[in-house]
Design brief:
This protein is an alpha/beta fold. It is built from 14 helices and 14 strands.
């Protein structure tokens, strides 16, 4: 199988590093082997880089692209709004229509507020919970990601030595420069351990408990049977606001998010990524009594670009398409086929592996075949070997996240899956022999 060359991407990155710090505008785009790609355009399930290489794309913008790159209905909706104007510092009807679609689709959504990023709406949820309860502490889980701000960028990916006891994890900041005062009112708990949650919440001093309802930032870990239901009851019993961070799972695992899939309704939920198929939109949704604290004169929430007319038009167009259900049926069928195909190839080559998650967002790990049920289980996988595999795959035209996450879109059809499995087979033979 012919291998791609990336000379133009390398040259562009070398030049870009003289203008942009590190050559990127997000640290999570740096350090990708053999080089961070410079992309020219996207088409359906494919990206075309500046060297002209055509890649089957499983990054999908780190999750937002659910309909495929450049779906006509979304592009046309954004263009129609651009013809009317860009920004008005007022409301447009698309805001109300977008919120109405969120309310129709998401179980917890009695009211909605839009913003520009998941990081922002997470903070808005914390502020609401503290205002509603009069408490200050927010509890999160080891291995869960809720944005890059100082108070929540803790215990995302600590070493086992730094992490502390499994049943009472340490708070471990991720970045130099974080203000320790910002996370002094945060608590960190182990995931999938109901007893630890019940014990911590029993103190009745926690304003909010925030979680990814499935750990899609770490190994696509699903909750154990009864876990979400138990957490829901513990929050209700102790007056703790339950927040689901559905920035990844929302509108990706189903039109109603993970809360619809698992049948557990939080008090508040945050959304982003797939909500607008790549346009910068996020949402906070939840109980009316909590959300209505955001009325003027009470809890402050603002933002110049919140409810941006162009992004709201894209949101409406995206949610209309997702509400039809065809996209999810395609992803269900082809995602399952891809997961099974990768597993078969790896087993045929005697490569221990664990593939788990949802058809629309799953994780491939090497070095273990055991279920991964929490962050510390994920540390047992062979990440160095998986990196060898991803490098071999991108050289052959399939782009997969180094951390092992695979995102699917409605544009990943049978031909795309066929091509992907051919590349996986050749890459395993080359890189893992």
């Amino acid at each position: 199988m012919a291998l791609n060359s990336f000379e133009k991407s390398k040259a562009a990155m070398a030049k870009g590093e003289k203008q942009l710090a590190g050559g990127v505008n997000s640290n999570f785009r740096a350090g990708v082997a053999p080089v961070p790609l410079v992309i020219d355009r996207g088409e359906g399930a494919y990206l075309i880089d500046v060297d002209g290489n055509r890649h089957v794309d499983y990054y999908l913008g780190m999750g937002p692209i659910i309909l495929g790159h450049n779906p006509p209905t979304v592009i046309e909706a954004a263009k129609r709004q651009l013809d009317k104007g860009i920004l008005f510092a007022s409301q447009v009807e698309a805001e109300f229509e977008a919120a109405d679609w969120v309310k129709k689709l998401v179980p917890c959504a009695e009211r909605v507020r839009f913003a520009g990023s998941g990081t922002e709406v997470v903070q808005a949820g914390f502020r609401l919970a503290r205002a509603a309860t009069g408490r200050n502490i927010v509890a999160k889980f080891e291995g869960h990601y809720h944005g890059w701000l100082d108070n929540v960028l803790i215990s995302n990916s600590p070493s086992l030595e730094a992490a502390g006891p499994a049943d009472a994890p340490n708070i471990v900041p991720l970045s130099p420069g974080q203000d320790p005062a910002a996370y002094q009112n945060m608590a960190v708990l182990p995931w999938n351990n109901l007893e630890a949650v019940q014990k911590r919440l029993a103190k009745r001093d926690v304003a909010a408990l925030i979680m990814e309802p499935a750990m899609c930032n770490t190994s696509a870990i699903q909750p154990k049977a009864g876990y979400l239901e138990g957490v829901r009851k513990a929050c209700t019993d102790t007056g703790t606001i339950l927040i689901f961070d559905e920035v990844i799972t929302g509108f990706r695992v189903s039109a109603g998010g993970a809360q619809k899939v698992f049948g557990v309704t939080p008090d508040l939920a945050t959304f982003g990524k797939a909500i607008a198929n790549g346009f910068p939109v996020a949402a906070l949704a939840g109980r009316a009594d909590l959300m209505d604290l955001l009325v003027p004169g009470k809890v402050v929430h603002g933002g110049t670009y919140n409810g941006h007319p162009v992004t709201m038009a894209a949101t409406v167009a995206t949610l209309k398409e997702l509400a039809k259900g065809d996209v999810y049926r395609t992803i269900e069928k082809n995602g399952k086929r891809l997961m099974e195909g990768i597993g078969t190839i790896l087993r045929d080559h005697q490569v221990p592996n664990r593939i788990q998650g949802f058809p629309g967002i799953f994780h491939v790990a090497l070095g273990t075949s055991e279920p991964i049920t929490d962050y510390r289980d994920s540390l047992k996988t062979d990440k160095a070997r998986f990196l060898k595999l991803t490098r071999a795959m991108v050289e052959r035209g399939v782009r997969v996240l180094d951390r092992g996450a695979w995102f699917m879109s409605g544009a990943h059809d049978d031909a795309v899956i066929d091509r992907t499995l051919e590349v996986v087979e050749d890459s395993v033979r080359s890189a893992l022999r």
